[in-house]
Amino acid sequence: MGKMNGMVALITGGTRGIGRATAEMFAAEGATIAICSRSQAALNQTAQEITAKHGVNVIAQVADILDRASVEAWIARVGNAAGKIDVLVNNAGGSEQRVASGSMKQVYAVDAISGDLPPGRFEEMADAEFINAFNQKVLALIYAMRAALPWMRKAGGGSIINVVSMKGKQPLPRVVSSSVAAAAAMNLSKGLSLELADQNIRVNVVALESILTSQTEKSRARWAPNKTMDEFLAPRNANIPMHRIGTSDEVAHAIYCLAAPLGAYITGQVLCVDGGGLRSW
Ligand SMILES: NC(=O)c1ccc[n+]([C@@H]2O[C@H](COP(=O)([O-])OP(=O)(O)OC[C@H]3O[C@@H](n4cnc5c(N)ncnc54)[C@H](OP(=O)(O)O)[C@@H]3O)[C@@H](O)[C@H]2O)c1
């Protein structure tokens, strides 16, 4: 018998990368899964594959996390079908790093602060960059959490896991837009964890640095089109204490630990899945 039997788990962005790995892990433990993304074809294929492999029900519906109405419609459908929601993983989203003039270097939370950083200054950053980061990593979380909370109360409790960049804890120059949005998501999660603790609803953050997903290939193609993936990753890996990039399954397992029943006493935490990249403690 799976450790999540009878549980209903929502994952935003469940069709690939970390969201897909999380959906697979929850399904393997017997949970009913609900996933959303912006592609119905990818949702259909993912749902079919997960059901075939794990024999669980998958509710898959198009919803854009930036479109409150579509997120509310997806969550209402799941709540009405299942009668409750136990777990919400706010996973979808991304942040576009600005290409400062002449820059061909992506900035990571593990980079050394050195003269090697790309050109470009805070004053040159467009408002749209800050607004996009906040929409992706703050407002989108608020939409989904607001919609899911009434259904978690029906379940007698729940677990919310917000997936953001470790830059929220370890900011670097040149990328302050995504850093402040991730920090805001962490602060929001901590505040809500206190507000919701006596309702048995937990709120935690999984904070990431370098995880191999489709995002990594997108970044390589954008920042280092002439390099192989190994060449592209080498400078970043050098600054990660474990000297390697992480996997989606490793992140999914951290999310699972916070979602599964035995995570019941953990709330208000930021769990960094970063190969030791966070320099403070
Ligand atoms: N990979 C890393 O190194 C890393 C580092 C720091 C933080 N993170 C965070 O981890 C999360 C997962 O990243 P990943 O690397 O697994 O990404 P990924 O491989 O690109 O997968 C993203 C998933 O989210 C969906 N999605 C994207 N935008 C969406 C939107 N507006 N509305 C609904 N669904 C959306 C995608 O499907 P569609 O595109 O079809 O909608 C896909 O299913 C993201 O929030 C990312 O910011 C990742």
Blueprint (SSEs and pairs):
Elements: E1 8-12, H1 17-28, E2 32-37, H2 40-54, E3 58-62, H3 68-82, E4 87-90, H4 127-155, E5 158-165, H5 176-196, E6 201-208, E7 211-212, H6 214-223, H7 229-239, E8 246-247, H8 248-259, E9 270-273
Parallel strand pairs: 1-2, 1-4, 2-3, 4-5, 5-6, 6-9, 7-8
Bound molecules: NADP nicotinamide-adenine-dinucleotide phosphate.
What can you tell me about this protein's structure?
There is one protein chain. The chain has helices spanning 17-28, 40-54, 68-82, 127-155, 176-196, 214-223, 229-239, 248-259; strands at residues 8-12, 32-37, 58-62, 87-90, 158-165, 201-208, 211-212, 246-247, 270-273. With 281 residues, the chain is of the alpha/beta class. The strands form two sheets. Strands 3-2-1-4-5-6-9 form a seven-stranded parallel β-sheet, sandwiched between helices. Strands 7-8 form a two-stranded parallel ribbon. α4 runs parallel beside α5. The mean pLDDT is 95. The site of NADP nicotinamide-adenine-dinucleotide phosphate has 29 residues, from α1, β2, β5 and α6.
